[in-house]
Amino acid sequence: MSRILLGVAGGIAAYKACELLRRLKADGHEVTVVPTESALRFVGEATWAALSGRPVSTEVWQDAHRVPHVALGQQADLVLIAPATADLLARAATGRADDLLTNIMLTARCPVVFAPAMHTEMWLHPATQHNVATLRERGSVVVDPDSGRLTGADSGPGRLPDPEELASIAFGILADPDLAVRAARRDLAGLRVAVSAGGTREHLDPVRFLGNASSGRMGWSLARAAVLRGAEVRLVAANVDLPPPPGIDLDRIGSTGDLAQAMTRAAKDADIVIMAAAPADFRPAEASQTKIKKSGDDGLRLELRQTTDVLAGLVRDRTDPDQVIIGFAAETPTETATLAELGAAKLARKGCDALVINDVSGGKVFGSSTSEISVFTSDQYGGGRHGPWAGTKDTLAHRVLDIAVELRTRR
After folding, report:
1. Tens digit of pLDDT for each residue in 23-59?
2. What is the CATH number of domain 192-289+301-409?
3. Which residues are catalytic?
4. Annotated binding residues
5. In 85-159, which ranges are E strands?
């Protein structure tokens, strides 16, 4: 169980922090809420106490014998501030210590994550951008806000990301605190990353299709991790029923043919291409334009043809010699072929720079928030296997991106 300090600043998005608190608690963490005086105008102290199951600290002078402005920061495994207003970012960047929350930020030695929320004009103001840059230079993680509906009729960047998104970031950093260093440093800034996710569908008729059980969660985690580390991300999603991570350029598609076209466009100017989608390997030779009806007790015979090999096509059409291409492969080991053997053979067949392999036998991985992966690199990089690594898909996504960064430095 980790100890999380949830700071809440005085913005209308404070109500979203209630759901974020629920998600942090549901994952088994001890959460102490520290609202600013302004935050309590939006959500009362009783709400925070009831949801957290812990006393709510609001003032430096409260329980002074416990020295809360020092102890809370020293004892926390993560400080997460959501929402972080423009005022709070300014006070944190200048080292102010005029309330309990800003005192805690000065004493914390754990990762500190800010989730800004404010009107678009405030977020884009040079003063706010300077404060964000200052906080990142000092090692804090500042999550870019989402775009969407704000207070009143306004819309644009400045919206607090969904609680599920913020919880995923928090869980990833708690599992591997070094992620906060890479996120603060934004080591992918200036790079363009193309990611595919989900399972394609090949229609038999208007209501039936050939597909697979891919949920798209791994691709979502990769896109989320790349944005957090500063990359410009284009996500090609095949039949994924998840809200998109903020800060990405999303392209929704259906079939393997659609995937091939969309990824060809996305990869054209990408520095890193990650094919995490699960394309259907076969399609009907002919699809019926009307629903196929049963005919007595007769079965149904289908003629299937192979679909486009999207990953191999991306490797074949690569024009930038510095571009790194990483593929994914879901395999089921047998008595005659181990996971390592299957991975090495597919890597050679596809020709990509690295291949991420996971074992999906027995229904593992698909739809789960966790996985176990091994990464095989091509002979161009000396070959070899990295891993196996097990953990949440958010944590493993950073492992894959680390491999991509390493391969770029060795090209």
Report:
1. 999 999 999 999 999 999 999 999 999 999 999 977 6
2. 3.40.50.10300
3. 212
4. 281, 291, 328, 346, 350
5. 112-116, 141-142, 146-149, 155-159
